[in-house]
Design brief:
The protein is an all-alpha fold. The protein is built from 16 helices and no strands. It has one domain: Na+/H+ antiporter like fold (Up-down Bundle).
């Protein structure tokens, strides 16, 4: 019954956004915000667990399908550009957010943690709002994905460090140092497994579409589970599984057939953003949260564009890519939550930075869908799938 209420609420608000030509993502966020008091009061623990699992599944499918339409050679081409934009962009964002919050009166340590939480762009929004033709055929899709995966790896390292508490013991230090080797091992295992096991299985089942879909899902979720077991994120594992499958002739067809399933579970992610926005702890901190959110939205596209142009990209290409990358990330929400659990952030400051991240994501969805081609553009001339 409660799950039906979530889907009905999201469906009705999504219809209204179509009628009034607004981004449909905002409808899911608004549904979470509106339904949160009733749902959490009736069955809070069940609802939180269900939407968490569903939204994580949506993110995992998103990265798996993104990997399936990107051949490995296209990602490797952007190594230098990816390294520059990821490292320099993270540093700039860290310094800017730290400066704003420190000047606002937040203590230095918490200002630094908040700066770290806002270093990343949203994998979900960027990939969700890229047209399939862009993601599949053009260099912008490959470059955006390469940058996002590099940022996700950085986020995994940061979360691991925060979970170690105020001091990094030898066990945690070894775990962090081992992450690159585990990632390389997973990539090698995925490509060998696809070449010698999965490809044969898919060939034997090529007359049974439903079996192809199930096998592909099993592959993507399996690599995600192994990655999580290794201390990486499930999203990175799913992406590796998708890229290894991209060499198959049927990868693009399977990716197209899985899109509706992906979009259904992603609905729960955006619903979760509204559901978990803790307004009780915001209080007078709503103003710095709004300032930080708008700062990310306005400054990140500028410095991302400049960094891309310094790497040799054209002005128009750099501007559009910067605009698509111009928001904070869902990984920032995880970073702030972990920092609050381990005592690095107080509950009000954690709520402040989470609100800033959500503000940047919601406003960015408006900017991108109203100015650039997307699969969910509010006007026919901006709709491109």
């Amino acid at each position: 019954m409660l799950i039906s209420l979530i889907v009905i609420g999201c469906g009705l608000l999504a219809w209204l956004t179509v009628v009034f030509r607004q981004p449909v993502i905002v409808a899911y966020f608004a549904a979470g915000l509106i339904l949160a008091p009733a749902l959490l009061r009736i069955e809070g623990e069940f609802i939180s667990t269900f939407v968490d699992i569903s939204s994580r599944l949506g993110i995992t499918l998103l990265l798996f399908l993104a990997g399936m339409v990107l051949h490995p050679d296209r990602i490797l081409k952007f190594f230098r550009t990816t390294l520059l934009v990821t490292a320099a962009g993270a540093l700039i964002s860290w310094i800017l957010v730290f400066a704003v919050l420190y000047l606002w009166g937040v203590d230095p340590l918490q200002s630094h943690i908040c700066g770290l939480a806002t270093m990343f762009s949203s994998t979900i929004l960027v990939v969700k709002l890229l047209p399939t033709t862009t993601l599949h055929q053009r260099r912008m899709g490959a470059l955006c994905i390469a940058i996002l995966i590099a940022q996700d790896l950085l986020a995994v390292v940061l979360i691991t460090l925060l979970r170690s508490g105020p001091f990094l013991d030898s066990g945690r230090s070894t775990a962090v140092a081992a992450l690159p080797f585990k990632a390389v091992f997973l990539v090698a295992a995925a490509f060998l497994g696809e070449r010698f096991i999965l490809r044969t299985m898919l060939r034997r089942a090529d007359r049974y579409p439903e079996v192809l879909i199930i096998l592909s899902l099993a592959w993507g979720l399996g690599t995600a589970a192994v990655a999580e077991r290794f201390g990486l994120s499930a999203e990175i594992g799913a992406f590796i599984g998708g890229v290894s499958l991209a060499r198959s002739k049927i990868a693009y067809v399977i990716a197209e057939q899985l899109k509706p399933l992906r979009d259904f579970f992603l609905m729960f992610f955006f619903f979760t953003l509204g559901l978990k926005l803790d307004l009780a702890h915001i209080g007078s901190a709503w103003m710095p949260a709004l300032v930080v959110g708008v700062l990310i939205l306005t400054v990140r596209p500028l410095y991302s564009s400049l960094l891309l142009r310094s790497a040799g990209e054209e002005r128009g290409f750099s501007n559009e890519t910067g605009l698509r990358l111009g928001q904070a990330s869902e990984f920032g929400l995880i970073v702030s939550a972990v920092a609050a659990e381990t005592g690095f952030l107080s509950p009000p400051i954690a709520a402040l930075i989470q609100m800033a991240i959500i503000v940047s994501m919601v406003l960015s969805s408006y900017v991108v869908t109203t100015r650039l081609p997307t699969p969910i553009g509010p006007r026919p001339q901006l709709q491109l799938d």
